[in-house]
Amino acid sequence: QVQLVESGGGLVQAGGSLRVSCAASGRTFSNYAMAWFCQAPGKEREFVAAITWRSSTYYADSVKGRFTISRDNVKNTLYLQMNSLKPEDTAVYYCASDATPFRPVWSRVDYWGKGTLVTVSS
Description:
single chain; mainly beta; 4-stranded antiparallel β-sheet; globular
């Protein structure tokens, strides 16, 4: 059974940095694209960033140049480094796994983590 467990959320001031992590287990992590989504209060969950099994990366326009997605296939861990944080980045951040291995681009989610809350104060 695939499990995704996020950690690293917290309270940070605007302009600050935070790194969230996602520990994956249950299948061969390195074979699958992974992604981060976020959901702000009262809003729908939205895409933040993705990284393919070959480590190609994709970002939402709102986070380009500020956030960096990365993966450690030895530790089976996904990361999201968030810099220059803004109050509008406040959300629960979810880790997600792609449904199909060895895809060149992100396709669709089959597993979600439970999320970690990031709060950015102004």
